[in-house]
Amino acid sequence: MKIEPSRQLQHYQTGIFAALNEKKEELLQSGRKVYNLSVGTPDFPVFDHIREALVTAASDPEQYHYTLRDLPELHTAVKDYYKKRFDVEISTDQIVAVPGSQEGIPHLGMALCNPEDVVLLPNPGYPAFEVGAHFGNAEPYFYELREENDFLPRLDEIPEDIARRAKYMMISYPYNPVCAIAPPSFYEEVIAFARKYNIILVHDNAYSDIIYDGVQGGSFLSYEGAEEVGVEVFSLSKSFNLTGARVSFIIGNQQVIDAVKLLRSQYDFCIFEPIQRAAIAALRGPLDQVKIQCQEYQNRRDALCGGLRSIGWDVRDSAGTMFVWARIPEGFSSSQEFVIRLMEETGVICTPGDAFGTMGEGYVRFALVLPVETLQEMVRTIDESGILKQN
Ligand SMILES: Cc1ncc(COP(=O)(O)O)c(C=O)c1O
Q1: Domain count across the chain
Q2: Is 211 within 8 Å of 320 (Cβ atoms)?
Q3: What residue ranges in 94-224 does DSSP mark as E strands?
Q4: Are 110 and 263 spatial neighbours (Cβ–Cβ below 8 Å)?
Q5: Does residue 165 share a domain with residue 304?
Q6: Residues 274, 147: one domain?
Q7: What is the CATH number of the domain that holds 140?
Q8: How many A from CA of 38 to the centre of ligand 1?
Q9: According to the model, what pLDDT value does residue 230 have?
Q10: Is the CB–ligand 1 distance for residue 94 below 6 Å?
Q11: Stretch (H or E) spanning 264
Q12: 351: part of which helix (H) or strand (E)?
């Protein structure tokens, strides 16, 4: 019997990531030193108070039944955190927990869209954003983020008919992969745009705690009118190193939250309670380690961006996120060609920018997941390989 998967699967591929992984295994097997900066999994440990809350809850046999609900204490902890951290007032009804933004964002597409709708997506784009449009059977429209515009969208470039058909628009700052942040004027402009065209705004706020040079990370919901037009997707993964016990929240506009809750009620028995307990500990606990960690990411950014500049590769400093977005050096014809050559000649693994869309061509992304000393050693290895001077 031949089984045809759904037409939707034609949109998806594992392509370059599978190829990178294969190449990495080859290098390791041949005894080469590998610097793997391709995936954004934090190497920092989960904080003790969070792990202890999870372990304590997980040792209770009662926890192993279906969970069936978001704990009311969890919603209250999110509400209090938003007040304390972002000075944003929300009610507990405006919150729904999801097992990670990577899952929540595509499901928003399913909860909101019909086939005649358009979803406005950034290019370069975090891949899960586009999945939302496909889950909703909607048409993706990619707006361009260009370096000369500080990776902010030009809303006047979005055609009027597309804006009229758009159901929701994904935005995200600090933004992975381009590592840019947005000024308050951008949020004011995009909220006015959303109001004008009746577009829901979805702000992915995965990096509110990884932002550099003294800038304070904030919440989209702190802007006037934000709650009327949109929601924020707030992940604990990166702030609290919980990528293996993922929990995120969709927060904001009541009608959007109710739609998401109705959708989830059809398939979701809610997040394992010990993970919810860990999330409460994270949100209610001290935030000094989060700040120390942010400083360490900044030190890594300095070691990588400054180090690469010192050997003749003009790399822009990241303003936020745990990544660096670098133009490929002169003389290479594509991001993929450069990534493969870099890997073969230095053992450094990064992600080609075109994995994030056509506007990513000509760039590569490094994840800041190795300590400063290792990044310095890696920069020396790149320098000694001569790859920057070959072409
Ligand atoms: C922009 C962006 N959004 C969402 C996520 C995923 O977050 P979560 O771990 O909550 O699924 C990531 C993870 O790398 C990300 O970079």
Answers
A1: 2
A2: yes
A3: 95-98, 118-123, 139-144, 166-171, 200-205
A4: yes
A5: no
A6: yes
A7: 3.40.640.10
A8: 14
A9: 98
A10: no
A11: helix 254-264
A12: strand 351-352
335 lines ligand 1 (CB under 6 A): no
Classify burial at 249, counting beta carbons within 10 Å of its beta carbon; exposed 0-12, middle 13-18, buried 19 or more: buried
What is the per-residue pLDDT across 356-390, written as a single tens digit (0 to 9) for each? 999 999 999 999 999 999 999 999 999 999 999 86
Nearest CA owner, ligand 1 atom 7:
101
97-148 pLDDT, tens digit per residue, is: 999 999 999 999 999 999 999 999 999 999 999 999 999 999 999 999 999 9
- Please tell me the predicted confidence (pLDDT) of residue 321: 98
Q: What is the pLDDT of residue 391?
A: 61
Q: How many CA atoms lie within 13 A of 291 on its CB side?
A: 9
Give the residue, out of 131, 145, 178, 237, with the most ligand 1 atoms within 8 A of its beta carbon, to mutate for a pocket test.
237
Q: Give me the residue label for tokens 């400063």.
A: 372
With a 6 Å cutoff on the Cβ, whether 235 touches ligand 1 is: yes
Shared domain for 125 and 241, answered yes or no, is yes
Render pLDDT for 189-215 as a digit per residue (tens, 0 to 9).
999 999 999 999 999 999 999 999 999
Q: Which domain holds residue 276?
A: 64-284
Asked if residue 81 and residue 23 are part of one domain, the reply reads: no
Instruction: Please report whether residue 51 resides in a domain.
Output: no
Ligand 1 centroid vs 206 CA: distance in angstroms? Answer: 6
Q: Do 86 and 152 belong together in one domain?
A: yes
**217 has pLDDT over 90:** yes
Name the domain boundary from 261, 284, 307: 284
pTM over 0.90: yes
* Contact 100 CB / ligand 1 (< 6 Å): yes
Cα of 102 vs centre of ligand 1, distance in Å, is 6
Are 297 and 195 found together in one domain?
no
Closest C-alpha residue for ligand 1 atom 16: 176
User: Which atom belonging to ligand 1 lies closest to the Cα atom of 236?
Assistant: 10
Residues 237 and 332 in one domain: no
Atom of ligand 1 nearest to the CA of 238: 9
The two tokens of residue 180 are 């840019």
Final residue in a domain of this structure, among 254, 284, 314: 284
Q: 72: exposed, middle or buried (C-beta count within 10 Å: 0-12, 13-18, 19+)?
A: exposed
Query: Would you state the pLDDT for residue 15?
Result: 67
Cα 128 to ligand 1 centre (Å): 8
**71 & 132 share domain:** yes
CATH number of the domain within which 324 lies: 3.90.1150.10
Considering the domain boundaries, does residue 369 fall inside one? yes
- Model confidence pLDDT, tens digit, residues 325-359: 999 999 999 999 999 999 999 999 999 999 999 99
Question: Of ligand 1's atoms, which has the minimum distance to the CA of residue 105?
Answer: 4
The string of pLDDT tens digits covering residues 16-69 is 777 888 888 988 999 999 999 998 899 999 999 999 999 999 999 999 999 999
If one residue of 207, 235, 236, 323 were mutated to test the ligand 1 pocket, choosing by the most ligand atoms within 8 A of its CB, it would be 235
